[in-house]
Amino acid sequence: MSRKITRRKFMATTAAGAAVAAVKFPTPAIAQAAPFKLGLLTVKTGPLAQGGIQMEQGVITYLKEKNYTMAGRKVEFFSADTGGNPAGTKTKVQELVERDKVDTILGPLAAFELLAITDYIAQNKMPLLSLAAAEDMTQRRPNPYFIRASATSAQAMHPMADYAAKELKLKRVICISEDFAFGHEQMGGFQQTFEDNGGKILKKIWPPLVTPDYTPYVAQISDCDGVCQGFAGSNPLRFMKAYDSAGLKFPVVSGETGGDDALLKSFGDEAIGLMSCIPYTLDLETDGNRRFVEGMLKNFNTVPGQYAGLLYVNCQVVEAGLKALNGDSSDKTKLVAAMRAVNLTDTPRGPVKFDHFGNVIGDFYVRKLGKEGAKYGLSLWNKTVKTYHNVGQFWTYDEKKFLAQPVYSRDYPPLKQ
Amino acid sequence: MPAARGVTNERGKPIAMSSWLLLTVNSVTFGGLLFLLSAGFSLIFGLMRIPNLTHGSLFMLGAYIGATFVGGMLGITFDFWLAALFAAILVAAFGAVLERFLLRQLPGQQLAQVLVTLGVSFIAADFCLMVWGGDPINVASPKGLSGFLRAGPLVIPYYRLTIIVIAVIVAIALWLLLDRTRLGAMIRAGVDDPDMARVVGIRVSRLFTIVFALGAGLAAFAGIIGGPMLSAYPGLDQDMLPLALVVVILGGTGSLLGSFVGSIIIGFIYNFGQAMLPELAYFVLFLPMLLVLLLRPQGLFGRHVP
């Protein structure tokens, strides 16, 4: 006969064990002694994984550099894979908040993921630092627990349009971008600033997010001074190929995703000459950025793009906010306020502070893709040609007037006839 | 307004003649690539009666494996064509294993088989992500084919023309195989009536393995041939699978001619549809499929209803 554990015996031993545990390990009374729990919503599977993996690498690079300590508190890191869809994001954010009881969440990556959880975040008073660029999250429908240290969709496009009009002297431009909110908002921002500076947008072309071959769209580009592309993920690569294959030579300008440094190792000569404006550039020669890039090379043997760079910046914001409260994260409303009040001078993207909506005011870099100055074993390089300092989400526009106009969209601003 | 009588886009503005030609050439090129992808898909569908949902993954695997050897990532650099052949053989072997050890375990259970192919496609997608990372990988055009053909205002990359030539060669080779060889006769018999084929002594189950391997190899070959145009990236599988599905439903399952004609038609619809009605790109692409399913469920050249 096998030995049986009776219910009574089981209850007795468990109770005894629990009693011992309670005596031996009293729960710490002071909040500071407990680890600071940092959650990350990212995407590690599916087509969005390229950016998602970089996000996690940026966070880990920061934590390793700081030996998993922030403001004197040990950091426990929880990484969750949302799968890149709103339903998955909803589930994972609940896990992070209710099961893991995290103190702050970084991510998610995409706007549609963010929109799925924004109400939940506000209800649970959970500080959230996301890359997702949806304009209205810090404009017409702000969330008091949201912080964006990266950029709104159009934040990089305003300076890009300024540069295209004033320095490249472009007059007539055709816009092309994916047919979803991020693309619409980018192109809206470009159009507004470009037309305010005397330029004209001839047409806006919207290929679907999934487009294996861009040639049919490229065929619609003719008779212009330049092209503005707003592609994201791996799409810029295929767009530039199709563009080059069709023999087009008009200068191409783009935003934060269209010329991201993470694509440098994939681009070929067809991308030479591509201009892009971006909140994080590999090319920035500061101690903060050098330390970060070296960390990325050491930990992951890869050069960072903006997803890694901006998540590293997010971690700096979290730590600075925590420091201001002497490591006390018990009151989340205070924590968000402290994070929004930070004024960092040496991040990989340069100085960082926030406006009253929690959106970043920082430097934006206009770069030109070429071979000159290539480092870290790359053969292509984005060389900074102009830095726009202290760019906010409203660019040079008056905040009230800007908020009174509709959010940038597929049809706003409308094309001039 | 003489221009208004020409081909116009959605805003009523004329499309330049050179764009028109570019679209035409690209339609044929894209059609050729689709044929390489969907010929195997069609044969598998026709013979085994299941849509092989791993077909997109096989295409992607081919692209990745090819890119690995063309780019010399393992320290070994193959010539483009050698890499293409190698990728095709490797993936064909994988296809054979998949059929022999997974699908064979579920004889006659078509729904279960389809679900297995779907499951394998998810596994393959994450496998690729694990091995090659999320960064898109560029595949260089083969040596000597990287230039352009310039004809007046028209600029056509030589490589795109090469794809057309390859598609035609493969089509002829497949036709000879199916029409002129004993194996081909057996496959045709299996497509037409598997039960009767068994009765006359054809080992249909072995045909399954052969056709599945052949289809897998062709898909992988298409993946690397399409590499310089599409590159290898996560999600490529899901981008290509629906196109193969549309082609085969349009052309009819198990018919080589069907895949060929279907591919060219879809190539044209894809290119011209997106250029002229970009807002309705998907609608235009799937409308012919819908019409065929309603009016002629066996497809244009198919012999039985799937």
List SSEs of chain B in N-to-C order. HHHHEEHHHHHHHH
Order of helices and strands of chain A: HEHEEHEHEEHEHEHEHEEHHHEEEEH
Beginning-to-end CA distance, first to last residue of chain A: 91 Å
Low confidence ranges of chain A: 19-31
Average of per-residue pLDDT values of chain B: 87
CATH-assigned fold name of chain B: ABC transporter involved in vitamin B12 uptake, BtuC
Q: What coarse outline of chain B follows from CA principal-axis ratios?
A: globular
Per DSSP E runs of 2 or more residues, the count of β-strands of chain A stands at 15
The secondary-structure class of chain A comes to alpha/beta
**What is the CATH homology-level superfamily of the largest domain in chain A?**
Response regulator
Q: What gyration radius of chain B follows from the Cα positions, in whole Å?
A: 20 Å
Please summarize what this structure is.
The complex is a heterodimer of chains A (417) and B (306). Chain A is of the alpha/beta class and 417 residues long. Chain A has helices at 7-24, 49-65, 86-99, 111-123, 157-166, 181-196, 215-218, 235-245, 287-300, 306-324, 332-340, 399-404; strands spanning 36-42, 69-70, 73-81, 104-106, 128-129, 146-147, 172-176, 200-205, 226-229, 252-254, 275-278, 343-347, 350-354, 360-370, 381-391.
